[in-house]
Specification:
The protein starts with a helix and ends with a helix. The chain has one domain (about 1-300). The chain is built from 13 helices and no strands. α1 (about 1-25) runs antiparallel to α10 (about 220-245), α5 packs across α8 and α6 packs parallel to α11 (about 250-260). With about 300 residues, it is mostly helical.
C-alpha cells in the first residue's frame, strides 16, 4: 500500500508544482509567495476541520506541539520554494528541491536500522541519480538553449546565486523535515499528526493574511489567485497520501525517493503547459527515475 500512496503523492505534488508556479511567477507581485501560503493554509485548514469534526480524528495541543518542529520545517521549506519560483524555471527548481529524497535515503542508509536488498539499494540510487541529474543538466545548460526556451515560454530569468540558493535551502529543510517526520510518527497517530500540520499551516496563513491584506493592503485578484488555490488542493491531497506512505519505517527509505521523483512529472508538465523545452539529457534523467520506481514497485509485490 505504501507504494500506491507514494505514487498518489507524486502525481498530486507534481500538479501542485505546476499551479504554484503559475500562481507565483508574476514578477510584479512581490508577495505572491505569502499569498500561496495563504491558499495552502486555507485548504489544509478546511481539510483538517473535515477530518476532526466528520472523520473523528483526535487532536490535542500535545499533538500540535509535538509535531510543531516538523510542521515548521515543512512550512519554511515550502515558503522558500514559492519565493524561488519567481527567479527560476520550474524545470530547474523542482529537481533541485526534490533531491531531498536522496538525502533522506542517505540518512537512513547511515542511521536507519532497516533491512534492505541490493536491488532496492540500486533502485534508490537510480531514483536519486535521476532527481539530482535533472538539476545538474538544467544548471549546466547552454546559454543559447536556455534563451531559446525562455523565449518560447515568454518568461526570462537570469542566472544568480539566489535562484539556486532558494531551492537548495528548500532541499535541506525538506530533508530534515522528512527525516524528523519518521521519528515523530513513532509516537503519534498519522491522522492526528497530519491534522496538526494542517492546523499549523492554517495559523501561518492567518499570519500571512494579516501582513499582506491588513498591513501591506495588497489586493487579492481572483484571476491571479485561482491557480494558487488549485495548487493548494493538489498540495493537500499529496500531503494526505504522503504521511501514510512514510509512516512505515521499513519502507520510508524507498518511499521518500519515489515521492521526491514527482519533479520528473513536474518537468514534463512544465514542457506541456509552460512550454519549457526539454533536451535528450532531461529525458535520460527522467528514464532513470521511472526505472527506479518500477523496480521498487516490483519488489513490494
Amino acid at each position: 500500500m505504501w507504494f500506491v500512496l507514494a505514487l498518489i503523492a507524486l502525481l498530486c505534488w507534481s500538479g501542485s508544482d505546476l499551479f504554484s508556479k503559475i500562481g507565483c511567477r508574476e514578477p510584479d507581485d512581490r508577495l505572491a509567495h505569502l499569498k500561496m501560503v495563504m491558499a495552502v493554509g486555507l485548504v489544509m485548514g478546511l481539510h483538517a476541520a473535515y477530518e476532526i469534526f466528520i472523520g473523528g480524528t483526535e487532536i490535542s495541543w500535545h499533538v500540535i506541539w509535538t509535531y510543531l518542529p516538523v510542521s515548521l520545517l515543512y512550512i519554511g521549506s515550502m515558503t522558500l520554494g514559492y519565493v524561488g519560483l519567481r527567479y527560476i524555471e520550474l524545470s530547474i527548481s523542482s529537481p533541485i528541491c526534490n533531491a531531498s529524497g536522496a538525502l533522506v535515503a542517505l540518512l537512513w542508509f547511515i542511521t536507519g536500522d532497516v533491512e534492505t536488498t541490493p536491488a532496492a539499494v540500486a533502485a534508490v540510487i537510480l531514483v536519486s541519480l535521476g532527481v539530482i541529474g535533472l538539476g545538474v543538466v538544467e544548471s549546466r545548460e547552454d546559454e543559447q538553449l536556455r534563451a531559446a526556451r525562455q523565449e518560447i515560454s515568454n518568461y526570462k530569468y537570469a542566472k544568480s546565486w539566489l535562484a539556486l540558493a532558494l531551492p537548495i535551502a528548500y532541499m535541506l529543510l525538506d530533508a530534515a523535515g522528512t527525516f524528523a517526520d519518521t521519528i515523530v510518527l513513532r509516537e503519534l497517530n498519522e491522522d492526528s499528526a497530519n491534522c496538526a500540520y494542517e492546523l499549523t499551516f492554517l495559523a501561518a496563513a492567518v499570519v500571512c493574511f494579516v501582513y499582506v491584506v491588513l498591513i501591506r493592503r495588497d489586493r487579492l485578484v481572483p484571476k491571479l489567485e485561482a491557480p494558487k488555490y488549485i495548487g493548494a488542493v493538489f498540495e493537500t491531497a499529496g500531503q494526505f497520501a504522503y504521511i501514510y506512505a512514510i509512516a512505515d519505517e521499513t519502507h520510508v527509505m524507498y518511499a521518500a525517493p519515489i515521492i521526491s521523483a514527482y519533479c520528473a512529472a513536474s518537468v514534463l508538465w512544465s514542457r506541456v503547459f509552460l512550454r519549457e523545452k526539454l533536451s535528450a539529457k532531461h529525458y535520460l534523467m527522467i528514464l532513470l527515475v521511472v526505472i527506479g520506481i518500477v523496480i521498487l514497485g516490483i519488489l513490494d509485490l
